[in-house]
Amino acid sequence: MSQSPKRTIAMVAHDKMKPVLLEWALENKEALKKFNIVATGTTGRILAENLPEHSIVSYKSGPLGGDLQIGALISNDELEALFFLVDPMTPQPHDVDVKALIRISTLYETPVACNRTTADFVLRGITAPGYTKRAAHPMIEEYVQRSV
Length: 148
Ligand SMILES: O=C(CO)COP(=O)(O)O
Prior knowledge:
- This protein has about 150 residues and is α/β, with parallel strands linked by helices.
- It has helices at about 20-25, 30, 40-50, 65-75, 95-105, 115-125, 140-145; strands at about 5-15, 35-40, 55-60, 80-85, 110-115.
- The protein has one domain: Rossmann fold (3-Layer(aba) Sandwich), CATH 3.40.50.
- The chain has a five-stranded parallel β-sheet, with helices on both faces.
- The site of 1,3-dihydroxyacetonephosphate has 13 residues, from helix 3 and helix 4.
- This is Methylglyoxal synthase.
- Keywords: Lyase.
């Protein structure tokens, strides 16, 4: 019997949140094996070092465009969920990229977890039997069909 292809999730953490994301990923490592994982550069390196049995692809570091690479996956409807542990207390040089990533996730109905509690909910949701991701927001179709 052929198995359905693994779905892809993204994992990102700002520097102060990397230990939290790693701890969470280790706690959930069995469930995470069901997915291909993509990550921003430094986050991905830390995850790959600690989860050697998982499929993890690292993009560029966040400040160098990694958030936008994940945004591109979302706009191609290729991402199941985004786990992005943000640091709410530290200004980021690439804040506009972070904002763009959250915006495009909203538009494409991609579940986003910005803290650990929500990460628990999202992971439980996307691994629940019968779960399928909603289609992108109808405002996309309206936008495509708009008269010029
Ligand atoms: O800055 C980030 C996300 O905005 C994370 O990038 P790194 O994983 O490369 O540290």
